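User: Hi! I'm working on a homework problem where we have to compare a predicted structure to a textbook description. Could you give me the structure for the chain below?
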Amino acid sequence: MDYVANTLGNLLHQTAFFNLTWGNYLMIAVACFFLFLAIHKQYEPLLLLPIAFGMLLVNIYPDIMAHTGDGGDGGGLLYYFYKLDEWAILPSLIFMGVGAMTDFGPLIANPKSFLLGAAAQFGIFAAYFGAIALGFNDKAAAAVSIIGGADGPTSIFLAGKLGQTALLGPIAVAAYSYMSLVPIIQPPIMKALTTEKERKIKMAQLRPVTKLEKILFPIIVTIVVCLLLPTTAPLVGMLMLGNLFRESGVVRQLTDTASNALMYIVVIVLGTSVGATTSAEAFLNWDTLKIVALGLIAFAFGTAAGVLFGKLMCAVTHGKVNPLIGSAGVSAVPMAARVSQKVGAESDPTNFLLMHAMGPNVAGVIGTAVAAGTFMAIFGVV
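Assistant: Happy to help. Predicted structure tokens:
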């Protein structure tokens, strides 16, 4: 009888109920809320669902993210996924997939979009000084500030390059969460800063872009940007390589692989590993709360700066530019462009801003990578 009782007692104590803290239960609740947003509300489920599930797993079974340490090679499944984040492999592959999926034609047709993409990076530098004011050191502040570009892969890439692996998890979760919540965060800011008349502005159709222009663009951007900021090569280089696959027309199999199978595999691995950095012990602290708050402020500032610069362009061109496309200058491709289209269509259902917004959106991806390269250059990272 004692044997049965001891066996049942051992089995009972092997369950997670006896090992979890109140913090784990709180994070499990947060994970379930994110799953609700991803599945029921469909807020960018490709990102939010794997992140939320990784969060759920690590707070039920922390060892799935554990590493033996002391030179040992043992570790949990998601620990090995996470190492691919630290080594900048997954962020670079994500950029290649984005390049293969994205038409750069709107940016080529309207180069002024680069200005809107640059304006939206204001949130990054505002967050940098905010992080310094809150007590982060300069490298940690730089890593945190990239959240303002709404660019998860670049946030992970820069945090790793600057040696801020202790903050990589909260930074990545904040960046990807805000990317997923673009449809919630941006519209109130866009509406507050524009008038009904401005939101109804219809922009002239973009000029056709030749195949030669589309082929030359990724090559020229790679040469120019990587010569100026060589440390951006893993991101900008992969982004442009993916786009060259797409536009060259001679490697359709590579284009399909980069934009579909490979992209989705990387999203699964990256999403779950990012979510797995949110164990209660690592996530529930003041630094994390500061990062989440700074990220939101930075993202709001970036959106506002893009819209305000769009208003300036609207005034300079005598009403030919709809300021709403400025909000797409953040790096969330193509989510931010879709939001510009949605807000514009609410004022005038016949107004089609999507392709116009894709120009600043693509420029924002390049701009955030350049901002990361600038920080790496400042701190002497090679």
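For your comparison, note the following. The two ends are 66 Å apart (CA to CA). The mean pLDDT is 89. Good luck with the assignment!
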